[in-house]
Amino acid sequence: MVNKVELLAPAGSMDALKAAVENGADAVYLGGRCFNARQYASNFGEEELEEAVRYAHKRGVRIYVTMNISLKQEELKDVDDYLKSLYEMGIDAIIVQDLGLLKLVKERYPDFPVHASTQMTVHNSYGVANLKSAGCSRVVLARELSYNEISEIAEKTDLELEVFVHGALCVSYSGQCLMSSMIGGRSGNRGTCAQTCRMPFSIERSRDGKHLEASGEYLLSPKDLNTLEDIGRLIDIGVKSFKIEGRMKKPEYVAIVVSKYRKAIDSYIAGNGETASAEDNHELAQMFNRGFTKGLLGGDFGESFISIEKPSNRGIYLGEALSVQGRNVTVKLETDVALQDGLGIDNGSGESKSATVDRIYMKRKAIESASKGEIVALDLYAKVSSGDKLYKIYDKKLADRAKETFQDIEQEKLGLDLELEIAIGERPVLKTVYGGELVTVEADRLAELGVKSSLTKEKVTEQIGKFGNSDYEMKSLELSLQDGSFLPLSVLNELRRKLSEELDSRRIKLENRQRDAVNPFDGYEFKEHSYSGTKLSAKLGKLSQAKYLDCEKLSRVYLPIEEGTESVAKELKSEGVEVYVYTDRIVRDSEFKSLKQNLSKLGESIDGVMCGNIGALEFVSSEMPGMGLCTDLGLNVFNSESAKYLERFGASGVTISPELNFKEIEELTESYGFEYEAIVYGYLPLMTMVHCPMSLVKKCGSNRDCERCEFKSGYELSDRKNMKFKIQRVKDITTIYNGQRLFIPEHIGKLESAEISYARLDFTDEREEISEILDIYHSALEGVADRQSVERYKEELGDKAAFTKGHYFRGTI
Asked: Is 81 inside any structural domain?
């Protein structure tokens, strides 16, 4: 038996919502005016949201509202009213990134369905299990998972799983990207991403600056996902919801893409075989494409995944400019063209130009359209040269056809089988069955014995059937009318209106609210921690860095889990240092077995584990009880409620987000006393991704040989401003690091004032200088470091521009 699935469409405007609904979406996700990850979309105000709910629910379509950003402490006070509004409005579910917000929702409205956003970076079954325990009804899986990995997760849970099937892709794991934030202050975790990944980059060798030639310059810009031909595979492995990206896209785009996926899903479920025709794929490409990829989901890698030549819409290739005379451009058509189509012009320089087809000539005769293979002259108001490539980026006929599906349409009416009882001295009763339930309304007035006239069956039938512009029409009427009964016709009209209103109410009734839902945080006693001073901790990228540590100046060290960890841990512990190991941000299901073996082997040589993702936290807390636990920056702790969430699931300490400034940190720590850790030194990780930029140099088609690759370290990206970003690839995962080191020893007192328990030094590939950096920070905590000594250290390294204060002073939008 084929699983019942949901087609989930985006909407950034009311027209886009109508386009989604009228073209077959089962549900629509959209954003309100605040707390969502598309702050630059039109989004919906409160009245528009109410209109959207009415429109969708009357047509049997669900509405999900995105609240998928990380929330700062100050913003939590505004959440309650917004949640109450959404809950009472009848929103079917909210999509959430912030763990603290998830906690608040479940405490206030246990029966309000919550979907865990892809921004939570859920990529293993333990992450899914944790979110189920927290009350989520659905998890949107990371887009980096393969079909096999999704299938394995689906087999281990009864929670609904949602997967992106079409549209723009992030190159980094969603929720693990600080690139836009650190470069320009616009945070992807806050809904204001500047799409830095769509900018040009080059690759250089770190040791000598040698430029390496790639096959293009857009090294981080993915193609658009297209799984239309593989939709059956996702249905078979147990995916519940198929998500189309595009809240920033036009309604016409939504209409066409939704219609194609509706057709594909229905065709597969019906057993018709083919789910996508050549025409379907052509029209998808025409609406918008950066080139299509089957995604990491389908095993694409390197050039099959990255739109290396152009980061924006490619359109459909129209042909080469054979000759140009004035505004007339002669082209042999590679696809059809018509008046008012929009063209993109590529002259090979990277400069983007566009034009509208004002006239078409064939053999000097004006025509309205021409077909593939024909030679025509196009009248274009743009500078075009012979040899330029022309692309059709807007198809007017296709756009008009899309508009016809949602503009000025008449809603199909719902036929009603009615029963009406009218008896003298009784209130008339009108009944129908909807959704398997009896719907009954009663008149406000008693029927009387007619004196001069009485009701006839013909008159009652005519009057009760006048549903007018409502969504209903009378299909049949079973009438029980006592002879001699009389009622004003206005009473019958009011009875009919009452039925329409009750049906409206029933049609928007929430079917997925579980009134017996329980608060998963109820009964847990949160225990505030008392602050005992700020101590130094260090996270080592390599075990070999341990020899540069002065343990008298450190309270805790975080070690990678690898061969030799146990002996290093024992040595550090013998010097009085607390030792934790840390997991990677990405831990696939296939890696948990070895993780458990390694942790069991380490045993008492370590004091605990710092978990890089929610699944790792769930795994250690459930499989290795008694192990000390804290969390790393990948869990995006922006507020005290997130800290409480993580405490509820076993953590005794959390790393706060590096996107917070000093004021925001103080607001967080004042709200709840906990063991907070802040990163104060290091090359911050800006992107964590499966994609490898070096694959575009090596022309790799897969990640099979990454561990043996000579390019896995020692190289860096360079942007247009010549800023450098270090590249490191470990276990098939690439991390892009900020080229500027976070360095704030002179401001460490501000973290002490905020009662931060640990100030952490993150070392990646540093060696001898570790001792000096540790000494500077230790002196700062002891109150003996001064600004001059800090500046002297920077000068010794020779480049003051290589340092940054991160967001500690500026914060993010």
From this structure: yes
Determine contact, residues 14/48, Cβ cutoff 8 Å: yes
Is pLDDT above 70 for 276? Answer: yes
Q: Which pairs count as long-range contacts for 260-266, CB under 8 Å and 24+ apart, including other chains?
A: 260/228, 260/284, 261/7, 261/165, 261/166, 261/228, 261/231, 262/7, 262/23, 262/24, 262/25, 263/24, 264/228, 264/231, 265/5, 265/7, 265/231, 265/235
| 605 shares its domain with 467 | no
- Measured CA to CA, the distance from residue 168 to residue 180 in angstroms comes to 17
In which residue are the tokens 């063991």 written?
675
Q: Which residues contact 562 (CB under 8 A, 6 or more apart)?
A: 543
Sequential DSSP letters for 498-523? HHHHHHHHHHT--TT--TT---TTTT
Token readout for 642 is 């997130």
Clarify whether residues 338 and 448 are in a common domain.
no
In one-letter notation, the amino acid at residue 81 is: D
| Residues 633/490, Cβ–Cβ less than 8 Å | no
The answer as to whether 337 is a domain residue is yes
What is the torsion angle, in degrees rounded to the nearest 10, for the CA atoms of residue 644, residue 647, residue 648 and residue 649?
A: 130
Q: Kindly state whether residues 540 and 679 are assigned to the same domain.
A: yes
696 and 556 within one domain: yes
The stretch 561-588 carries a mean pLDDT of 98
> 612 and 582 in contact (C-beta within 8 Å)?
yes
Residue 1 confidence (pLDDT): 45
Q: Given 357, 379, 404, which residue is the final one in a domain? A: 404
How, if at all, do strands 292-293 and 676-682 pair?
A: unpaired
* 125 close to 619: Cβ distance less than 8 angstroms: no
Closest CA to 312 of 281, 342, 252, 352: 352
For residue 84, being part of any structural domain is answered with yes
Whether 174 is in a domain gets the answer no
Residue that finishes a domain, picked among 276, 292, 308: 292
List pLDDT tens digits, range 22-64: 999 999 999 997 887 565 567 899 999 999 999 999 888 999 9
Amino acid at 130: N
Considering the domain architecture, whether residues 251 and 153 belong to the same structural domain is answered as: yes
Q: Report pLDDT for 702.
A: 87
Q: Are 192 and 40 in contact (CB under 8 A)?
A: yes
The domain that holds 651 is classified in CATH as 3.20.20.70
Domain CATH for 331:
2.40.30.10
Q: What total number of domains does the chain contain?
A: 4
User: 689 with 765, same domain?
Assistant: yes
pTM over 0.90: yes
Q: Which domain holds residue 468?
A: 414-507
Instruction: Compute the residue count for the chain.
Output: 813
Q: In whole angstroms, what is the distance from residue 136 CA to residue 517 CA?
A: 11
| Dist CA 359 CA 470 (whole Å) | 45
Please give the Cα distance from 38 to 188 (Å, whole number).
Answer: 9
> Please, are residues 550 and 764 in contact by the beta-carbon 8 Å criterion?
no
The Cα–Cα gap between 721 and 196 comes to: 13
pLDDT at 149 over 60: yes
Are the beta carbons of 146 and 93 closer than 8 angstroms? no
CA–CA distances in Å: residue 102 to residues 91, 99, 160, 229, 415? 16, 5, 17, 35, 41
CA-nearest of 433, 398, 416, 417 to 470 is 416
Residue 585, pLDDT > 80, answer: yes
Residues 446 and 390 in one domain: no
Q: What are phi and psi of 56, to 5 degrees?
A: -70, -45
